[in-house]
Design a protein that fits this description.
Helix content is 29%, strand content 30%. It is α+β, with helices and mostly antiparallel strands.
C-alpha cells in the first residue's frame, strides 16, 4: 500500500486547490484491493479533486474517480468490462448538527464534518466501493447449454396456479 495522500480539507477548499493522481487497485487498502469482484487488480484508477465554495458560501470538494476495471461476472465467472466514472460534491460542515440539518433539507447532498486531515486515498476507495454493482453480470454470457436447460424447465409455480383455480 502506498503512503497516504493527506490534505487539510478546509484550506484545500477555501484556497480552491486541485489535485490529480492515479494508482492501481492493488495499491488500495484491503477492503478494495481484496474485493472479490475485481478480475484485474492492476487496473488503474485516476482521481481529481477540486476545492471551492458553493452559492451558499459553503466549502466543498469535488471528487472525480475514473477507471476501466474488469469485474468478474457473477453468472459465468469470466471478466467483464466496467467503466467507473463517478463525480460527487462533498460539502464540508463545521459540526455534526449543521451536517444533519443540511442533509435533512436536501436528500441529494453529500457532506462530511471538517477534519484536520483527510486521506484522499480513503475518499477514493469509498467512492469505488459505493459505485460497484451489487452483482456484476454480463447481459448475455453466451452460455447456450445453460439457456437450453432453463428453457425446457417447467415453471415450479404452475402447480400453485392449479391449486388456486380449483377452489
Amino acid at each position: 500500500m502506498l503512503t497516504p495522500i493527506l490534505i487539510d480539507p478546509e484550506a484545500f477548499a477555501a484556497e480552491q486547490q486541485s489535485l490529480q493522481g492515479r494508482f492501481t487497485l492493488a495499491d488500495l487498502d484491503g477492503r478494495v484491493s481484496s474485493h472479490e469482484y475485481f478480475a484485474d487488480r492492476q487496473a488503474e484508477v485516476s482521481f481529481a479533486l477540486k476545492g471551492g465554495r458553493d452559492r451558499l458560501q459553503r466549502l466543498f470538494i469535488d471528487l472525480e474517480v475514473r477507471a476501466d476495471m474488469p469485474l468478474l461476472c457473477q453468472r459465468c465467472v469470466k471478466p467483464m468490462s466496467f467503466e467507473l466514472d463517478e463525480k460527487c460534491r462533498i460539502v464540508l460542515f463545521a459540526d455534526e448538527v449543521g451536517l444533519d440539518e443540511a442533509m435533512l433539507s436536501d436528500d441529494e447532498l453529500e457532506g462530511m464534518v471538517l477534519q484536520a486531515e483527510l486521506d484522499v486515498r480513503e475518499l477514493v476507495e469509498d467512492q469505488i466501493l459505493m459505485a460497484l454493482p451489487f452483482s456484476p453480470r454480463h447481459e448475455d454470457c453466451g452460455n447456450t447449454v445453460l439457456e437450453e436447460v432453463n428453457r425446457d424447465k417447467p415453471n415450479p409455480f404452475s402447480v400453485l396456479a392449479g391449486l388456486k383455480s380449483s377452489r
